[in-house]
Amino acid sequence: MIAANEVEAYYESIAPFYDLELSDRHDVRFWIDLVRQLRPRQLLEVGAGTGRITIPLARLVAHCGGQVCGLDLSAAMLQHARAKLARSAQPWRDCLRFAQGDLCTFDLGQRFDLVIAADDPFAHLVDDGDAQRAFANVARHLNGGGVFAVEMPLSRGQDIADRRSSRCSVQGERTIVQADRRLDVDMVQSFTPGRKVSRVVFRYQLTDGGGHTLRRAECSFDGRVRRPDELEALFQGAGLPVTTRWGGFDRSPFDPTRSGEMIFVGIKPS
Ligand SMILES: C[S@@+](CC[C@H](N)C(=O)[O-])C[C@H]1O[C@@H](n2cnc3c(N)ncnc32)[C@H](O)[C@@H]1O
Asked: Rounded to an integer, what is the distance from CA 169 to the centroid of its chain?
């Protein structure tokens, strides 16, 4: 079973930094183009977080008379999403709702033409059984012919640890500056041979234009690292044959040796 309390505590700590941290991820355009292409009437984002992607997509879907739902486990992330939605313009904001629920068990009582999962909410489902349940649950929420698009960063750290039979760490430091705020992010991800679950530690420091610290946090989680064949198997197991495999937000073909992302698209047979 998932450690829902740990996931909630982790996202409560990072929610204040989340949108700024991901402001240079350049993935929103990818999802907008996908929605323009598929023109769903009913769209669901699972693991919608702060609505970073859900809200721009809702603007588009509402324009064509459709409806959007963003589902997430974390009350803190949803609080940010709902606050942003409340600041948005009518009438399209009435076409979007956020719901709290667990990927493995949610039941929205309706079906969708398109379900998306951006920036790997499945990382928190470390057990295969939970991930299988979550994919099956998404499949249940799809109309026949409906599409499920999943994006996961592709990490090679686990392969390196397995090959060397020793622990391996990947480190990253980033600074994001926007208006009068500066966010420094340090990340260390540690891989243990044969474990498939990495330990990820983030340190955040938010400062204002005068260099004063506004907020700091250190938080960590155990994140499941999935290989392309494991992601493929999750789709297959849920009865959603994979029809498209991209390796980045530029829609380059997926290449397991070079790609930074796995963006796989499965379709529920009609
Ligand atoms: C990395 S964030 C991605 C948020 C959003 N998709 C984005 O790209 O901005 C992952 C999200 O998945 C949510 N999540 C993790 N485990 C979940 C679960 N079991 N059920 C529902 N949501 C979950 C977290 O609360 C978090 O908001």
From this structure: 22
What's the CA-to-centroid distance between 81 and ligand 1, angstroms? 12
* Ligand 1 atom at shortest distance from the alpha carbon of 124: 16
Q: How far apart are CA 167 and CA 164, in angstroms?
A: 8
The domain containing residue 170 runs over which residues? 157-224
> What is the reported pTM?
0.96
- Give yes or no: residues 246 and 205 share one domain: no
Classify residue 253 by its DSSP letter: B
- Give pLDDT tens digits for 184-235: 999 999 999 999 999 999 999 999 999 999 999 999 999 999 999 999 999 9
List the structure tokens of 45: 């984002």
The atom number, within ligand 1, closest to the CA of 27 reads: 8
CA of 133 to the centre of ligand 1 (A): 16
d(CA 257, CA 264): 16
Instruction: Answer yes or no: do 200 and 256 share one domain.
Output: no
Query: Among positive and negative, which fits the CA dihedral 250, 253, 256, 262?
Result: positive
- 191: Cβ contacts below 8 Å, ≥ 6 apart: 157, 158, 160, 161, 167, 168, 169, 170, 198, 225
